[in-house]
Amino acid sequence: MEQVVVIVGAGPSGLATAACLSVHSIPHVILEREDVYASLWKKRAYDRLKLHLAKEFCALPFKPHSPNSPTYIPKDMFVDYLDDYVKTFDIRPRYGRSVESARYDKADGKWRIEARNTETGGVEVYVAEFLVIASGENSAKYIPELPGLDTFEGEMIHSNEYKSGAKYENNDVLVVGCGNSGMEIAYDLSNLGVRTSIVIRSPQFHVVTKEIVRLGMIFSKYVPVRVVDFVAVVMSKIVFGDLSKYGIHRPKEGPFYLKATAGRAPVIDVGTIGKIKSKEIKDYDYVLNEEGMPKNDFPHHWKGEKNLYCCGLSRRGLFGVSMDAIAITNDIKKVVSEKKNK
User: In 3D, which of 95, 102, 45 has the Cα closest to residue 74?
Assistant: First the structure.
């Protein structure tokens, strides 16, 4: 099956890219291994989840959020937004297609993509001039191999399987990881009567509020990042005080600089820090380094060689998804137009 553009993944990144391509009448197909688009949001998001960024930074291309929607949109409302987005742009992913390989053929200058149909078991071959990887930053769960884990008699789940802490009431639960998911899950568990502890994988990270992030993103349009970081750190110190006594230390670099250069997001507090201070949530220190994501640095991360692209991997959330989708589509449109004019 020959296509102009093949998009791998029907999460927000893939949907945004498809919408942009549709607006410019560029033929494309989306291959999605799950049986539904936005599977992470529809199947693997916990109940209390809200978007961590203000809605003006979480809209996909060509469709702003309703002015009547809350500033920080709840999960179910965002899923409704995605449903409407798919209808508006008539996006029709091919479900049950698990991409197993992609190879660039130098002879004809096209990509050959092999995808297994999970229903029939057969392999389908797609040939395309452009390939967009839009599988997202959080598409696969990772559980490290830890000594004793295979003999642990309690229940163990990954964060993408967590829905609510209600069933763990009056039990002991250890949350491993202090990123935004880990911190928010720990807060949810504690609120529901669970004896909660959290392992801090890296003792150096910034803690901010949603409002600090929102102001920082607005200021970033007008002033240098060092100024934004100075204001953000001062505000965080006022709100949270000295967190070093709880094993949490601020890095030397500011939160917005680290996000832009290393992809390290600050922890956006939803109330967890207060519970750590009051010892409702017990805090442990543990160090584990993390690496990954696109080969090229921002803002050129989305483009590879030989018409290969990646969307939604800039570590800038939904705001980055829109930026990537528009940049990719504009680049594809430019190449297509140049060929037509030859």
Answer: 45
Can you tell me which residue has the tokens 């801090």?
Answer: 200
The pLDDT of residue 112 is: 96
- Pair of tokens at residue 169: 């009431």
Residue 190 has pLDDT above 60, yes or no: yes
Residue 320's φ and ψ, nearest 5 degrees, are -70, -30
Token pair belonging to 158: 């990954």
Q: What is the mean pLDDT of residues 36-63?
A: 93
In the sheet where 281-285 sits, what is the strand order? Answer: 172-176, 195-200, 281-285
Answer yes or no: are the C-beta atoms of 293 and 253 closer than 8 Å: no
Closest CA to 332 of 303, 291, 312, 301: 303
Spatial separation of the C-alpha atoms in residues 194 and 169, rounded to whole Å: 5
Sequence-distant (≥ 6) Cβ neighbours of residue 336 within 8 angstroms: 4, 26
Residues in the chain: 342
- In this structure, are residues 40 and 139 in contact, taking their beta carbons and an 8 Å threshold? yes
Which run of H or of E encompasses 107?
none
Rounded average pLDDT over 143-154: 79
Count of Cβ atoms closer than 10 Å to residue 287 Cβ: 9
Residue 199 · residue 177 · CB < 8 Å = yes
Answer yes or no: is pLDDT of 294 > 70. Answer: no
Q: Are the C-beta atoms of 82 and 38 separated by less than 8 Å?
A: yes
* 266 Cβ contact partners less than 8 Å away, ≥ 6 residues apart: 205, 206, 207, 208, 213, 255, 258, 259
Residue 81 has pLDDT above 70, yes or no: yes
Q: Is the pLDDT of residue 298 over 70?
A: no
Residue 276: exposure state from Cβ atoms within 10 A (0-12, 13-18, ≥19): buried
With b for 16 or more beta-carbon neighbours within 10 A and e for fewer, the 98-137 pattern comes to ebeebeeeeeeebbbbebbeeeeeeeeebebbbbbbbbbb
Q: What span, in angstroms and rounded, lies between the C-alpha atoms of 96 and 121?
A: 10
Widest distance between CA atoms in the chain: 71
Tell the residue number behind the tokens 């380094």, with chain if given. Answer: 289
Element (H, E) at 244: none
